[in-house]
Amino acid sequence: MAFHLLAEPIRRYVRDQRWEELRPIQAAAIQHILADDDNYILASRTASGKTEAAFLPILSKVDFRQPGVRVLYVSPLIALINDQFQRVETLCQYLDVPVTKWHGEASRTEKKKLLDQPAGILLITPESLEAMFVHAPRSVKTLFSQLDYVVIDEIHSFLGTDRGLQLQSLLARLRRAGRARFAVVGLSATIGDYAEAKRFTGEAARTKVLLDRAGKEMHTQFRYFPADRSGADLPLDLLKDLYKQTSRSKALIFPNTRGLAEVVAVKLRLISDRVHGHANYFSHHSSVHKEVREYVEHFAKHNQRQPFCIACTSTLELGIDIGSVDKVVQIDAAQSVASLIQRVGRSGRRDGAASELLLYATNPWSLVQSLACWLLYQDGFVEPLRAARHPYDLLLHQALSIVKERAGIGRAALLKELLANTAFTEIAPAAANEILDELLRIDWLEALGGELIIGVEGEFTVNSREFFSVFKTEPVFKVVHAGKTVGEIPYSLQVQEQENLFLAARTWKITGIDGATKRIEVVPARDGKRPIFSGGGGTVHPRIREKMLEILVSPDDYPELDELSQLALRSLRQQFAGRVWPAQLTHERPALVKDKGLIFYTFTGTKINRSLAFLLRQLEVDFVFDDSQSSFGLAVAVHLLPALFEQLRLFAEDVDFHLRDALARNPALIDFAKWGTKLPEHLQVAVLKERYFDFAGAADFLRNTVVV
């Protein structure tokens, strides 16, 4: 039995928690992690005890009497570190093992204590680890030279991202700094490509996956409320129904933008006030001030009896413990199956409790996308996230970081270290050399006495707090009422005095804007003027769009849909009726004749659609693109589409010239890659092709598509 393999203090912890039995992922992890020194990916649903699955065997195995930090826990969020700290610290008290938080908001006294006497477990973000390499390289060796384990929480949030590449590079640098090999344990509820997760550890051949496929009972409803013509953010009938469905529950509500999260929180509170309901309506997203977010989290976690509703974004998608939630609500389609899985997992966390999912749609296309994501989730599909194989911009960043860490390094030694780093093994030496040449040219690096050092211009960059992160942060203004910070909002030209805005589940009037200090003064709004708030979109995987087409040409009924949803689906299906569809859809796509032109539906992913739109512009073809419908409105006869496809395909296969021209006209095209603007031009083109567009996928699509 796995329980008896644990160290006695850890067995005592389990007994004191009054667990009747270990969870399946915990029993499997104990048996495997205690048996060897391999890397592991622990994959099981949300709230299945993955944190304990990692730490129960690790704490039983590691000799914490030896000096140095023995276990490093890496988290994508400071809030998640603060949350997990309490769980890990409680567990570690049974072994008298110290646990330390290390991030920008953590105690300096505790950090100094750890540096003076390195021991135990350290919880950190990738950015704080990067900062340690850059500004305190001796601390890296002091703390981590004896490291046994690195635990990566929510590892799926790093896969396929720039931040993940940064962490992968930092793991390689940690291995170089240590005296012995450490093992990696990754935790996740949603992974679509286990080969990619194994590759992420830097030792794919020594990485094993422990997968618990057990699901939970799920009660799912789809409800349809078409958007009205008034231009309101959400239909009033939807908000009234949402209030009825959640007023007596503990509910998380996920709109797709921060702006809509605020709309939902404010409008539900107003409805509740009118009918004398409860006042526990909150918003939770990155623009809400940290203290307000922490209050909301604390209230949800420790509130035993009162109902509440939190309108939130992905900030509550990850594993922050907010206790038991009765219902999860998704308003309009989630952008990914992975996101839907994470959100669904927040409800029904008590043993034996079913998860409740309520999906609202305000237009037929959103309804079909929601249904597609739900059906794919039922089929076990999760989007595979593939890391960039040629992350030239990340190599540039890490080159600067290593030079700063070493206070100077020979060029050959730097190249050798970069190209041996598992994040950059597919980058050619010639390209790495070009990047160093460019850094020398712009004075971010300087050659001195056979070594590369940080140049005069580069000092401003590497000494900035912004250097530690590889994701771009939008310019934000602090919103202040009566001297107290309410939160932050992205600045735009719409932000003007006397305008209203939603923030922290309240409506505010802007009374003053100070551009120099990036500060907005507000007072509570009383005039009923329509507020402003911006949001954001997402990238949809091709499989979701393919599933949408399958739904639209299928006669199947779906019992989860309410009557209005069924009517909306039936109406949309009629647009694609009257065609001969094969039993198994592959490359067939519809074109509907409208007025003097047509609408061509690609039913493919966002990156391929972006590529098609770019190619159409190069051919100077007029079009109207709607990614939410995956459609292109074209003034072209149907019979001419094959010839147009062939022209677009030829452009797709030789697109570099057009991308260079586009970059010359609009340098902001590469802005999604924080360090991409400093690359040589042809490497900027390569980054665009690999991470923003998918021209290879577009060429394939154009070559094979059959118009019906």
Labels describing this entry:
708 residues, alpha/beta, 18% strand, globular
Structural account:
Helix 14 crosses helix 20 (563-575) and helix 21 crosses helix 25. The strands form 6 sheets. Strands 3-4-2-5-6-1-7 form a 7-stranded parallel beta sheet, with helices on both faces. A 6-stranded parallel beta sheet has the order 8-13-12-9-11-10. Strands 17-16-20-19-18 form a 5-stranded mixed beta sheet. The mean pLDDT is 91. It is built from 25 helices and 26 strands. 41% of the residues lie in helices and 18% in strands. The N and C termini lie far apart (60 Å). By secondary structure, it is an alpha/beta fold.
Q: Which spans of ≥5 residues are poorly predicted at pLDDT below 50? A: none
Mean pLDDT, to the nearest integer, reads 91
Main pleated sheet? 7 strands, parallel
Contiguous helical run count: 25
Cα radius of gyration in angstroms: 27 Å
Strand order of the largest sheet: 3-4-2-5-6-1-7
Question: What overall geometry do the principal axes of the alpha carbons give?
Answer: globular
Q: Kindly state the percentage of residues in helix.
A: 40-55%
End-to-end separation: 60 Å
Judged by helices, strands and strand pairing, the structural class is alpha/beta
Strand content: 15-25%
Q: How many runs of DSSP E, i.e. beta strands? A: 26
Protein topology:
Layout lengths: L7 H9 L7 H10 L5 E5 L6 H12 L9 E4 L3 H15 L6 E4 L5 H9 L4 E4 L1 H10 L1 H8 L4 E4 L9 H16 L5 E6 L5 H7 L6 E5 L6 E7 L11 H11 L3 E5 L3 H17 L6 E4 L5 H13 L5 E5 L14 E5 L5 H8 L10 E7 L2 H16 L12 H15 L4 H10 L8 H13 L3 E4 L2 E4 L1 H7 L13 E6 L2 E7 L9 E4 L2 E9 L4 E6 L17 H11 L10 H13 L12 E2 L1 E4 L2 E5 L4 H13 L4 E4 L4 E4 L6 H12 L3 H10 L15 H12 L2 H10 L1 E2 L1
Parallel strand pairs: 1-6, 1-7, 2-4, 2-5, 3-4, 5-6, 8-13, 9-11, 9-12, 10-11, 12-13, 16-20, 21-26
Antiparallel strand pairs: 14-15, 16-17, 18-19, 19-20, 22-23, 23-25, 24-25
Helix pairs in contact: 2-3, 3-4, 6-7, 6-15, 10-11, 13-14, 14-19, 14-20, 15-17, 21-25, 22-25, 23-24
